Structures are given as C-alpha cells and as structure tokens.
UniProtKB/TrEMBL annotation:
Signal peptide: 1-19
Recorded superkingdom: Bacteria
Pfam families: Fasciclin
Native source organism of the sequence: Flaviaesturariibacter amylovorans
Keywords: Signal
InterPro entries to which the protein is assigned, alphabetical: Adhesion/Biosynth-related, FAS1_dom_sf, FAS1_domain
Organism lineage string: Bacteria, Pseudomonadati, Bacteroidota, Chitinophagia, Chitinophagales
FAS1 domain location: 66-198
Residue segments, region Disordered: 18-54
Compositionally biased region (Low complexity): 18-52
Name of the protein in its database record: Fasciclin domain-containing protein
Length: 202
C-alpha cells in the first residue's frame, strides 16, 4: 500500500516541476523579446519651401505688391528725385494711404530734362503749392493697368486737370511722356514709369 501511494505523489511532483520550468522559460523568452524591441522616433517634419514674392525690377530694386507706392519708389535708384519731391510737397503720407492710386512716375533722367534749377526751386518751401500741383498731376484715382489705357482716353488727375492717353508705335504715351515700365503693382495702386515730367496746363 505504501508503494502505491508514494508513486502518484512522485508523479505529481514531477509534473509540477515541468510546469514551473515551462513557465519560467516562457517568461524568459518574453523578457528577451521585449528587451530586443527598439522604438523608432519619427523624422522631424520638413518645413514647407518659401517662394520669393513676385514683382517688377525698377531702378535696381524689386517692386513688390506687399509694399505701398511710396515704399516701392523709395527703393528705386532711378526715382530719388521724385521721392524727394513727394516728401517736400508733403504727399508721402497721402500716397502711402489706402488709395488706390495710379501714379505716372518720372525718372531722375526725366527731371534732368527740365531747365536747370527747376527742381531745386520747386522743392523750396515757398514753392510747395506749385510742386504739389505738378506732382498730383501725375496721380489718377483708381488702379489703372496698361491694358485699361486706351488711345484718346482722358484721365482726371488728383490735381484736377486731365491727362491724355495716346498710343504710338505700340507704346503708351501720357501727355507725350512714354511709359517705359508699366504695371508696377503696389498694395495701394499701380505705378507706370515715364520718361518725362508732364506739366499741368494751368
């Protein structure tokens, strides 16, 4: 009787030991697998490419739509005389305003075609009214592009008189001054570069 009773106990012990060994092996394998797993961090996002603002080159500087008419003109090496005159006439703030305006902008060379001493005399404080009249004769309310200008068209200026548009050999002429660079777009209007200073009739 003792032998019969002891054998089942030994068998049960052996099975329990095998079960424990199997569990330990599984746990070890699991631990090993976990240890070998590595975490891959995502690559940093690439910032979107930025593109330069499109504009028109005037006087060695890029005229861009995000700047107003005066800011753009101030960057042009060909319009230093015009900018000086605009400031002397107290028009810089007006032409920096909402607008929109169309400005026919004479170059330095255009001002140099005037009789000697003309510009120097105009920028003097006592001639401010006359200078203002000349400059505002170059400004038309609204934003007119070259495609909007037609032969024989009359443009009412801020000064009060009218400019006359003519077409000659495919070029746009404003009171006889040729538009050399059209459609310079600013945030508050359009500028057309011209090769002569146009004078009011009165």
């Amino acid at each position: 009787m003792k032998k019969a009773f002891v054998f089942p106990l030994l068998l049960a012990g052996a099975l329990t030991a095998c079960s424990d060994n199997s569990s330990s092996s599984t746990t070890a394998d699991s631990t090993s697998t976990t240890t070998q797993t590595t975490t891959t961090e995502p690559a940093p996002a690439t910032p979107p490419a930025t593109t330069a603002e499109q504009g028109v080159s005037v006087g060695g500087a890029m005229m861009v739509p995000s700047k107003n008419i005066v800011e753009n003109a101030a960057g042009s090496a060909d319009h230093t005389t015009l900018v000086t005159a605009v400031k002397a006439a107290g028009l810089a703030e007006t032409l920096s305003g909402t607008g929109p305006f169309t400005v026919f902008a004479p170059t330095n060379e255009a001002f140099n075609k005037l009789p000697a001493g003309t510009v120097e005399g105009l920028v003097k404080p006592e001639n401010k009214a006359k200078l203002t009249g000349i400059l505002t004769y170059h400004v038309v309310p609204g934003a007119l592009r070259a495609a909007d200008l037609k032969d024989g068209q009359k443009l009412k200026t801020v000064q009060g008189e009218e400019l006359t548009v003519t077409m000659k050999d495919g070029a746009v002429m404003i009171d006889g001054a040729r538009v050399t660079i059209p459609d310079v777009i600013s945030s508050n209007g359009v500028t057309h570069v011209i090769d002569a200073v146009v004078m009011p009739k009165k």
